[in-house]
Design brief:
Number of helices: 16
Structural class: alpha/beta
Radius of gyration: 24 Å
Strand content: 15-25%
Length: about 450
């Protein structure tokens, strides 16, 4: 048996079980290793689909030129399709993309135009705008626009979703993927939820991207948008391929945590993958740590190969220059907890305790916030500020149960969360977080704890 061209080898990538980076987490964690595609990424799937659908619609004609704004991997997939079908390719990339991606695209015959990262999407210098202008100026050209071209989603609905369902024998309970254009997240999720609507989808976002807040509030907050280093996930726009109704949860991951997990996947699992793969695994495991049960099966998609990042996250000097592998006394939540163990315990109060008694406890112990429990469940929290405000407004509230006026529960975070992640979580709305250690004992990390750690 042989294939008529390289594009016939796209798809049917393997599922591999994680065994080390997920220690202590319940359930079975599988990864869909997309670097087995000929272009070493999952983008081969949607690139071919966009080209074939454009041919069928008469939009892409023989001898035409494919023009696309890409972070590199979609360009590679389009280039392979172009080689097989006889099209010229021109790609625009943001200057934050790795040199390896640029070199690879040029190696397969594409023309590459590098554009500035730190401009708005509608700026004429952005890689979106440059691609659109080239499409307008060059006759017989096709601009796939992977962000809004629904063939992107359709490719994963028709291939990735069915593959995962078959490979897990229908046992998948959770699907996690980085969200950039949204095609792999939403196309795959749509298929899986049609087979079993109980499948939970977890989208991985990055700090500097609008997705998570937009999902949770419906607000496109421009203050959420700022430059970040991770390639391939997150956006400062809302692509049409991102169907927020299909994404149950979002988890944000820092550049640093994604990069470090990527290196761990290579060293501990033998998976030589790209940066967004590490982000996807880190974010998925953050969700799994608190939500998965023993019988659950989570599949995480790993989009691409590590060869795209040899000069970045697999380069120790680059990692050190960006502070990603710099040693520090209190590097993680685990380090902070180890220091705190010698300095006190976690105080909690039951939800039926009287408000007045809680106020007295906060005063006697000199603490600013306290978790509220119901049995062994953390069901709420209260801060001294909130309690004081309530007592001033209604002095007779002292005889009520604290559960009647409590705030939302404090968020649980992982023991290996780094200081930059903790600092991004602790804000005016989240004064403290909780951490469960290897013995299942719960600890609290406050803003004061974090300040002390950073000062050392």
């Amino acid at each position: 048996m042989y294939y008529n061209s390289i594009i016939e080898t796209i798809g049917n990538t393997p599922l591999v079980k994680l065994n080390n980076v997920n220690r202590g987490i319940k359930g079975t964690i599988l990864v869909k290793v997309e670097y087995f595609n000929p272009g070493n990424s999952m983008k081969d799937r949607m690139a071919l689909k966009m080209v074939e659908d454009a041919e069928a619609a008469g939009v892409l004609k023989p001898g035409g030129t494919i023009i696309e704004g890409t972070s590199g991997n979609t360009g590679m997939g389009l280039a392979l399709a172009g080689i097989a079908k006889g099209y010229k390719c021109i790609f625009t990339l943001a200057d934050k993309q790795s040199q390896e991606k640029i070199d690879i695209l040029r190696a397969v015959g594409a023309e590459v135009i590098v554009c500035p990262t730190n401009v708005t999407p509608d700026d004429p210098r952005s890689y979106y705008s440059v691609a659109k202008k080239l499409n307008k100026d060059i006759p017989n050209s096709f601009y796939p626009n992977q962000y809004d071209n629904l063939s992107n989603t359709k490719a994963h609905y028709e291939t990735t979703g069915p593959e995962i369902w078959e490979q897990t024998e229908g046992k998948i309970t959770h699907y996690a993927a980085g969200v950039g254009t949204g095609g792999s997240m939403c196309g795959t999720t749509k298929y899986l939820k049609e087979q079993n609507d109980a499948v939970v989808s977890v989208g991985i976002d990055t700090y500097g991207s609008v997705f998570k807040k937009y999902k949770e509030t419906g607000e496109f907050d421009e203050n959420e948008v700022y430059p970040y280093l991770t390639e391939g996930i997150g956006e400062d726009i809302l692509p049409k391929n991102v169907d927020f109704s299909l994404i149950d949860h979002f988890v944000k991951v820092t550049d640093k945590d994604g990069a470090i997990m990527t290196r761990r996947l290579a060293r501990e699992e033998g998976l030589f993958v790209g940066w967004s793969c590490g982000s996807a695994v880190f974010g998925a495991l953050e969700y799994a740590r608190e939500n998965l049960k023993e019988e659950d099966v989570m599949v995480i998609i790993l989009p691409d190969h590590g060869t795209r990042y040899l000069g970045k996250i697999y380069n120790d000097n680059w990692m050190k220059d960006h502070g990603f592998i710099e040693s520090r006394e209190f590097a993680t939540a685990k380090d902070i907890i180890a220091h705190k163990k010698a300095n006190g315990q976690l105080f909690t109060v039951k939800k039926d305790l009287k408000v007045g008694a809680v106020a007295k406890l906060l005063n006697e112990e000199g603490i600013d916030q306290i978790p509220i429990v119901d049995g062994d469940q953390f069901v709420g929290s209260i801060t001294a500020t909130h309690l004081l405000q309530v007592l001033i407004e209604s002095p007779d509230v002292k005889e009520k149960e604290i559960g009647e006026i409590m705030d939302k529960p404090m968020q649980f975070v992982a023991m290996d969360n780094t200081l930059d992640v903790l600092s991004s979580i602790l804000d005016k709305d989240n004064k403290a977080v909780l951490v469960r250690d290897e013995t299942h004992q719960v600890h609290i990390i406050t803003q004061h704890d974090l300040l002390m750690a950073m000062a050392n």
